[in-house]
Amino acid sequence: MSRRISYREAMREALRDALRGDPRVFLMGEDVGRYGGTYAVSKGLLEEFGPERIRDTPLAELAFTGAGIGAALGGMRPIVEVMTVNFSLLALDQIVNNAALYRHMSGGQFSVPVVIRMATGAGRQVAAQHSHSFEGWYAGIPGIKVLAPATVEDARHMLAPALADPDPVLIFEHAALYNVEGDLPDACEPDIRSAKVMRPGKDVAILAYGGSLHKALAAAETLAAQGIDAEVVDLRVLRPLDDATLMASVAKCRRAVVVDEGWRSVSLASEIMARIVEQAFFELDAPLARVCSEEVPIPYARHMEEAALPQPEKIVAAVKGMFA
Amino acid sequence: MSAVEHPAPPPPAGPVPYDKAFAHRLLADMLRIRRLEEKAAELYGETKIRGFLHLYIGEEAVGVGALHALTSADNLVATYREHAHALLRGMDMGALMAELYGTREGCARGRGGSMHLFDRATRLFGGNAIVGGGLPLAVGLALADQMQGTQRVTACFFGDGAVAEGAFHESMNLAALWRLPVLFCCENNLYAMGTAIERHESQVDLRGKAASYGMPAVAADGMDVVAVHEAAKEAVAHVRERGGPMFVEFRTYRFRAHSMYDAELYRQKAEVEEWKTRGPIHTFTARLKAQGKLTEDEFLALDAAADAEVERAVAFAEAGTWEAAEDLSTDLYTPPGAVP
Fold first, then answer.
1. How far apart are CA B150 and CA B73, in angstroms?
2. Which of A76, B31, B44, B120 satisfies CB 3.0 to 4.6 Å to A109 for a cystine?
């Protein structure tokens, strides 16, 4: 059994569950309270849980992210909402130098059980400063875990295990997904460890995550009509990467395309390709390919923005290039 | 008239308003820090200690006076110049010295070194080597206490250099806005590494910055352990009773180089010499003797005890063992079953 729900509602249900289930949990960030959340994710939570636990902050990403880390050290289970990944650069010092390092640098004395959520991605004509996809950068930092829920199921079920995790977990929610509806199964196994095969196939493995997953699935439909049976894998967890699932898919299909909305160079896609070369080189029948964002600031004008981002057509072209 | 760029205040003077036992405790702690760090500098020369080593020599009155105003239940967030703070919170000097050596017996298993002393047992949350990086953590610790209804104070130490950081201003605002029990302790030693305060601050009276966020702000002579302790006691009481934050600026001076590599091209020798005449240990000693609260023999006994403690700490560190390189990844993440 399942029910129809939007990604936004799924995330809100997850937040409500977490807040109801553990008095140590609280949400803080810019406009999470009275405004109802920039993307309306936290709408209604202030009324239910009050201003202590749904805490509006000043526009001070560094301090409130650091305060979340400090509150986690002090015994709470904070959920810090940074409005978007673009503004998370202002909090980078606290995430990298405190959250990620504290357990190891203190010789195992201090864990930081904080969850930091943020919207990411482009595709809504909000121009260069609001269209970044830096989750790949974060995925390169030891000491944190990085999640990218792409489905309503993951929007609904990744938060609880993230909060139960004793270490810092970053959750990247692609802003274009909030309105997307999906079927949420009644029974789900919460898991923040593994990648997931979303569409089984045998001819090419398309490895994607977040907002790009849906483009990959669309591309797979187009390819199917042209006789190419693509397997689509949702990375789900960007750090640590689930190498086993990815390599199994690559070994089965013998061809692989990585789709990543981050800029192409030194990207999550580069890392995944390197791992495939290290671990599955002899399984390959064709050179690897990747579809990433073009290495330009993401423009405002719709046709220019579309040209800059991964698109189903680009994925289809990359796959067909392997069979040429 | 002083000819130096940053004249020292008048030497600390007047009766010490403490009983003999407490006065001796303050003196003993200043001596413990001084002897520990003198030894650390020596060991650095012998390459027993490597990396960065920031000495507190000259500033001991600040740590000693301020930390004796806290209880063991309070939180402490410190900087990379934090040997004194760790020791005064109750960290064993052997574990501290072992950390400087980088051995497994160190307080952070040799992973942190001089700049990253941690001690869960005494609620020392680092040892933060990003200037200003500890302030948001202190705000968060205080937020946790406020939400959990505990009566703790979180003391957060930082230097005058941190005042120029955005983290300082964001943290002051948040602490004042949410009325969090943070004691902001600014150790103003007049130099942000090598940049004098008038060359990095448009407003050199730092109290004004805190006051602008609506929190009480006072300054104390950081060369005088009595002035520091009195100011800290009042401030801690204010934070604990009123719940909101407070800012105390301790005006002090670093007698040694910023770190171990520093030609001190940025300040006058005469200025350093002038401040040394205000040294917190000898001025306090003189006052106690003048009051009949300390004899030379008693001083020598305290000093010898400090030396002996340092010797034991060095012996402990010398007998240390290295963490196995195979354990490099241990505690990158919390092991299953460990309580965070």
1. 10
2. B120
Domains and CATH numbers, chain B: 20-315 (3.40.50.970)
Nearest by CB to residue A105, choosing from B116, B144, B334, is B116
Are the Cβ atoms of B118 and A143 closer than 8 angstroms?
no
pLDDT tens digit sequence for A19-53: 999 999 999 999 999 999 999 999 999 999 999 99
Tell me the backbone φ, ψ of residue B109, rounded to 5 degrees. Answer: 65, 20
| CA B288 remoteness from chain centre | 23
In the CATH hierarchy, which fold is given to the domain comprising A2-185? Rossmann fold (3.40.50)
A52 exposure class (CB count in 10 Å sphere: 0-12, 13-18, 19+): exposed
Q: Give the pTM.
A: 0.97
Chain A / chain B CB contacts < 8 angstroms: 155
Question: Of B94, B107, B102, nearest to B47 (Cα)?
Answer: B102
> Is A157 tagged catalytic?
no
Spell out the SS3 assignment of chain A.
CEEEEEHHHHHHHHHHHHHHHCCCEEEEECCCCCCCCCCCCCCCHHHHHCCCCEEECCCCHHHHHHHHHHHHHCCCEEEEEEEEHHHHHHHHHHHHHHHCCHHHHCCCCCCCCCEEEEEECCCCCCCHHHCCCCHHHHCCCCCCEEECCCCHHHHHHCHHHHHHCCCCEEEEEEHHHCCCEEEEECCCCCCCCCCEEEECCCCEEEEECCHHHHHHHHHHHHHHHCCCCEEEEECCEEECCCHHHHHHHHHHHCCEEEEEEEECCCCHHHHHHHHHHHHHHHHCCCCCEEEEECCCCCCCCHHHHHHHCCCHHHHHHHHHHHCC
- CA of A241 to nearest chain B CA: how many angstroms apart? 15
Strand partners, A273: none
What residue segments make up the domains of chain A, in order of their start?
2-185, 196-321
A279 Cβ contact partners less than 8 Å away, ≥ 6 residues apart: A243, A247
Residue B2 pLDDT = 62
ipTM entry: 0.96
In this prediction, residues A99-110 reach a mean pLDDT of 98
May I ask the CATH class of domain A196-321? alpha beta
Residue type for B317, please? A
**Which of the 8 DSSP states describes residue B125?**
E
Structure tokens, B115: 């700049």
Shared fold status for A2-185 and A196-321: yes
Question: Is the pLDDT confidence value at B95 over 90?
Answer: yes
For A64-81, what is each residue's pLDDT tens digit?
A: 999 999 999 999 999 999
Percent of chain A scoring above 90 in pLDDT:
98
Q: Which of A57, A103, A109 sits opposite B332 (nearest CB)?
A: A103
Tokens standing for residue B196: 């004098």
A173 labelled catalytic:
no
